[in-house]
Amino acid sequence: MTRKHDGGGNHAGTKTSATLRQLRSQIDKLDLQILKLINERAQCAAEIGRLKADSGTDIFSPAREEEVLQNVLAANKGPLDNNTVRAIFRELMSGSRALQRVLKVAYLGPEYSFSHLAAIERFGSAVDFLRVGSIMAVFEEVSRGHADYGVVPLENSTDGRIADTLDMFIRMPEVKICAELRMRIHHHLLANCTQQEIRRIYSKPQALSQCRNWLSKNIPHAQLVEVASTAVAAELAQREPGAAAVASRQAAAKYKLNILFSDIEDYPNNETRFAVIGLHSGERSGRDKTAIMFQVPHQPGALVDALNVFKNNKVNLTWIESFPAKSAKQEYIFFVDFEGHAEDAKVRRTLDALQKVCDKVVVLGSFPISDLIE
After folding, report:
1. Calculated CA dihedral for residues 325, 326, 327, 332, nearest 10 degrees
2. Shortest CA distance to 347 belongs to which of 333, 367, 320?
3. pLDDT of residue 49
4. Domain with CATH 3.40.190.10 in the chain
5. E strand segments, the chain
């Protein structure tokens, strides 16, 4: 029996192939247009860089970069989502900065720690990243001029303040906050063994704390072991039989580990706020915050008097932390940030009034308000 071939299938296949060729040809033309435009953009950025160099202005301008991102995200009608558009323009700005000068950015390592991921998110890939072993070292690299900027964790929505960072602001008040970054933190359980075979789970103390309920419910037999960073945890999980790590998705790829469970943080809105530190405050963007630290007299009502200054000047506080002053007396230093830039008239009045009721007031910097990065 002879089978007859249906020509309809061949016709449909030919039509599909022709459509594919047409679409790919259109993409090729668009790619060349995009390439031309991004290089024209880079030429404009390079010219701006030359003008900045002549006037002694910093290359990194958080206010301007935030303005660029807000403009393009507001105009984005898809189908690309905002996270993708943000990533594209982040790298465009990073490459344009590098045409002027390659910035050195210090971070708490190793690679693919959350501080490293935050540094990439803020500065893009076209920088010289300096990996250091402690938050103190990040501050020291910036203070000594070995790094242009540093990225340090400031607070976490689950665990609160990062004590090492606040301590370094007290020790090195010349270091300023010039930008902030709010980043959603997702933890994953990484291992190259099965869930039942896990005997030890490595991670940094904060990550284990943020996943403690999930771990106790799902892997109660495993020992929790604290290490310096989530990236170190992933490296140990790669080497040791029966070991797992709580770390990022990027760390899983870097260390060739399987993701056994995703998003194991106990609170779905877990986020960390990072500070970008340098030797200068940020420029005014029109949507700013200012961070300060102050110390009040050791007497009844002194803190109330200080807080009333903000109330009386209608300045909205967005963060407040107390921190031991490490003096002979049981005194505290208070860290706050609030809406407005230090150059705003209302903020200037507030700072002047605060000086009159406090023993010490130090402005840690003004910077653009960061949207949450998912």
Report:
1. 20
2. 367
3. 85
4. 102-185+271-276, 188-261
5. 104-108, 128-132, 149-156, 160-161, 176-184, 188-191, 200-203, 223-226, 243-247, 258-261, 271-278, 288-295, 317-324, 332-339, 360-368, 372-373
Tell whether the model's pLDDT for residue 223 goes beyond 80.
yes
Q: For 178-214, what is each residue's pLDDT tens digit?
A: 999 999 999 999 999 999 999 999 999 989 999 999 9
The SS3 assignment for 62 reads: helix
- What is the CATH number that goes with domain 188-261? 3.40.190.10
> CATH 3.30.70.260 spans which residues of the chain?
284-373
CA distance 77 to 290: 33
Q: Return the CATH architecture of domain 284-373.
A: 2-Layer Sandwich (3.30)
Q: Which two tokens stand for residue 135?
A: 């938050």
Residue 200: strand pairing partners: 223, 243
In words, the CATH class of domain 102-185+271-276 is alpha beta
Work out whether strand 200-203 and strand 176-184 pair parallel, antiparallel, or are unpaired. unpaired
> In terms of DSSP bridges, do strands 258-261 and 188-191 run parallel, antiparallel, or are they unpaired?
antiparallel
Which pLDDT score, from 0 to 100, does residue 374 have?
Answer: 83
Taking only the tens place, the pLDDT of each residue in 66-124 is 999 999 999 999 999 999 999 999 999 999 999 988 999 999 988 888 899 999 999 99
Rounded-to-integer distance, Cα 259 and Cα 189, Å: 6
> Across residues 331-340, what is the average pLDDT?
94
Stronger pLDDT, 21 or 5, i.e. the higher one? 21
For residue 7, which phi and psi values (nearest 5 degrees)?
-70, -15
Residues 367 and 278: their CA atoms lie apart, in Å, by 12
Query: Which of 244, 235, 240 is CA-nearest to residue 264?
Result: 244
pLDDT tens figures, 25-69:
999 999 999 999 999 999 999 898 888 888 878 889 999 999 999
Q: Are 260 and 341 in contact (CB under 8 A)?
A: no
Give residue 6's pLDDT: 54
pTM: 0.87
- Closest by Cα among 277, 294, 270 to 358: 294
